[in-house]
Structures are given as structure tokens and as C-alpha cells.
Amino acid sequence: MYSDKVFEHFKNPRNIGEIPDADGSGTVGNPVCGDLMTIMIKVKEDRIDDIKFKTFGCAAAIATSSVATELAKGKSIKDALKITRKTVADELGGLPPQKLHCSNLASDALRQAITDYFRRTDQMAKIAEFGLEKDLNALERREKEAHGEVLEA
Questions:
Q1: How far apart are CA 19 and CA 103, in angstroms?
Q2: Active-site residue, 102 included
Q3: Of 9, 22, 97, 130, which has the maximum CB count within 10 A?
């Protein structure tokens, strides 16, 4: 079912924890399975200098969080944005079809953390340049929900 690499990252996750003064943070969840994932980044000279995650979920969710942070650490923002759902799943030696959504969460959380970094540092043009408008909308929607604001249909 799971590859040895999935079990390794589940049993010994890398980059687990929090960055209290993070430059960007992205939280995503899957209401069907209940997985919830937050990725925090610290950026230095346009590179991901530090990255941490907190995940509530199954073995695949924890493993995809761990491997996504390993893939992104030290990379330029531009290169980190090339980390896709497929990249994460492939790096783990594949995932069962019913667990592929976990790799979606990991790459989506990373994209949202980068989007949040651009927003916090007044680099809104970068959001458009890298096609992150959808991620910005998701980030803002989650913040409104967290503050109990009613969303329009």
C-alpha cells in the first residue's frame, strides 16, 4: 500500500514544528477526510531559508508534508513554486489513489505560504506574475472563515 519512503517520513517527519515569526503561512484542509495541514516559511534573499509544518491527518498527510518541506527548503521562491502535487507523490514513490489528495494538500499549503509571504511583504505583483491569484483567494477566504465573517455565495 505505502512505499518505504512514506513510512520513513511518517515515522521520522522532517521540519515538523512552527516558525513563530514566519514570513508566510498556508493552511489547507480536506473536509472529506479531515486532514489539516499548515506550512510556515522564513524567506531570506528570495530563498526558503526555513520551513516547518504542522499536520493533523493520516500517515500519507504527514509524509507528504515532510517531503514537501524537504523539497522546498533552500530553494528559490520560483523553484519552490515548481513543486507540484505530482512532484510530492513521485518523491514518495507514489501514493495509493485514495491518498493522492494528501500530496495536493502539501503542494497547496506551500503555494499558500508563498502567496502569504508575497502579500505580507507588499509584493502583490509577484502573485500575478506567478499565477497565485487562486491561492490568494483561498487564503483570504480561510481568514474570513476563521474570523466568523459570512461569505457571499
A1: 22
A2: yes
A3: 9
